[in-house]
Write a structure and sequence with these properties.
The chain is α+β, with helices and mostly antiparallel strands. Helix content is 23%, strand content 28%. The protein contains four helices and nine strands; from the N terminus they run ααααβββββββββ. It is globular and about 45 Å long. The chain has two domains: 57 residues, 434 Repressor (Amino-terminal Domain) (Orthogonal Bundle), CATH 1.10.260.40; 100 residues, Jelly Rolls (Sandwich). The strands form two sheets. A six-stranded antiparallel sheet has the order 1-2-3-9-4-7, with no helix packed on it. Strands 6-5-8 form a three-stranded antiparallel sheet, with no helix packed on it. β1 and β2 form a beta hairpin.
């Protein structure tokens, strides 16, 4: 998948008429890393994707959506077997069904055991997180919250936050975000 991610990052960067250096300054990611990402020579963490999406003015799900666009109802069956699943250090599955200009962005995210905490991030909008399986730890403004299976949290995404897996098992959760445009 990181081939598609790199292509999308490069296309969007060029569309916005930004250099690698300008994106580097906006994200605090090295020019070398960004270049390697664009050329599919490395993968990105969720934190890096969030920084890049903020710098390029898109929701992170932009990098994981399929090109299909429709305003018709969409059913996605057996999502765990779907080919539209992105694997990196985490699994990210866009559940919007290709809806054109959705008001909110539903995603299934699977964090692997011990997934790195990295740094808190913030972005425009709101998030609703529902834990389907496992125990998810969320840091919101330096406060840790533990969400077990079937727990949920609603938060203002502009508040610094991060998701992490402190367990030995994968965690599956739904993240529904809205930018409030």
């Amino acid at each position: 998948m990181h081939e598609d991610l790199g292509k999308k990052v490069k296309q969007l960067r060029k569309k916005n008429k930004l250099t690698l250096k300008e994106v580097s300054l906006k994200t605090n990611l090295s020019i070398s890393f960004l270049s390697q990402l664009e050329h599919s020579k490395t993968s990105a963490t969720l934190e890096s994707i969030k920084k890049i999406s903020d710098a390029l003015g898109v929701n992170p799900s932009y990098f994981f959506t399929s090109p299909i666009s429709t305003s018709e109802p969409s059913i996605i069956r057996d999502i765990m077997k779907s080919s539209n699943m992105t694997e990196n250090r985490f699994v990210y599955k866009d559940l919007s069904g290709g809806m054109e200009d959705p008001l909110f962005l539903p995603n299934l995210i699977i964090l692997n055991p011990g997934d790195n905490r990295g740094n808190n991030f913030s972005h425009k909008g709101q998030e609703f997180i529902y834990v389907v399986e496992g125990t998810l730890t969320i840091e919101v403004e330096d406060e840790m919250f533990t969400l077990n299976q079937y727990d949920c949290i609603f938060l203002d995404s502009s508040t610094p936050h991060y998701w992490l897996n402190k367990t030995a098992q994968p965690i599956k959760f739904l993240c529904v975000s809205a930018t409030g445009n």
